[in-house]
Amino acid sequence: MLSNKVMIVTGGFGALGRVVAAEAAKAGAKVAVVDFAPQAPEGLGSETLAIGGIDLTQAAQAENAVAQVKAKFGRVDAVLNIAGGFSWETVEGGSLDTWDKLYALNVKTARNMAAAALPALLESGAGRIVNVGANGAVKAAAGMGAYAASKAGVHRLTEALAEELKGRKVTVNAVMPSIIDTPVNRKDMPDADFSKWVQPEQIAALMLYLASDAAAAITGALIPITGEV
To answer: Whole-angstrom Cα distance, residue 224 to residue 58?
Structure first.
């Protein structure tokens, strides 16, 4: 389903991004990973294009990343927007800076990469944008206001862009994970039952399906993937 598709994975050096990139490559895609970190971690496939030091909150840097991908592979068929950030902070005693930071990390990064890749996605004839929202943005818990608001922004961006692109052979969808089983989350919540959390491989499978030709009829969808949480 993904053979020879050219896919950009943002946040591709992170715990989820590395898994998505690896699964895409195993499925036959040509993969470019984009990240703010300057150096790629060990373990990326030799055929994967690693583009580090990219600040996707800046539109020009997103455009630069897309240009590098096109120069390497000649096209772009899908963008998987995983780049983002999280902070737990209550409004009482908290800072407005946190709200600005999470809006930039979660909403602006997705918007900027989608906009930068859009000409190439339209040329593809089967363009795909898959964003990572959050199940926690459906009903926010205490301390989750800034994060939930920013991820709700990703949901609305997904819906609006899907409507904008209807009839133009580019679909836009989002997955909404609950807690993802990553080393950082295990460290932060050591007493939790990790078996109930969503595995990165499970999220990767859903994202790659949405990026495939088989998902051509799906656009504007916000799909929960919550394990047993």
So the answer is: 29
Active site residue 209: no
The pTM score is 0.96
Residues composing the chain:
229
pLDDT at 46: 75
**What is the rounded distance in angstroms from the CA atom of residue 56 to the CA atom of residue 59?**
6
Q: What is the mean pLDDT of residues 32-43?
A: 93
28: left (phi over 0), alpha (psi -120 to 50) or beta: left
Q: How much is the pLDDT for 43? A: 78
CA distance readout (Å), 18 to 111, 146, 185, 190, 213: 21, 26, 16, 23, 22
DSSP state of 108: I
Q: Which residues of 144-162 are buried (b: 16+ CB within 10 A; e: fewer)?
A: bbbbbbbbbbbbebbbebb
Phi, psi of 9 (to 5 degrees): -115, 110
Q: Which of 147, 174, 197, 203 is catalytic?
A: 147
Query: Where exactly are the structural domains of the chain?
Result: 6-225
Give the pLDDT of residue 36.
98
Q: What is the mean pLDDT of residues 60-77?
A: 98
| Superfamily, domain 6-225 | NAD(P)-binding Rossmann-like Domain (3.40.50.720)
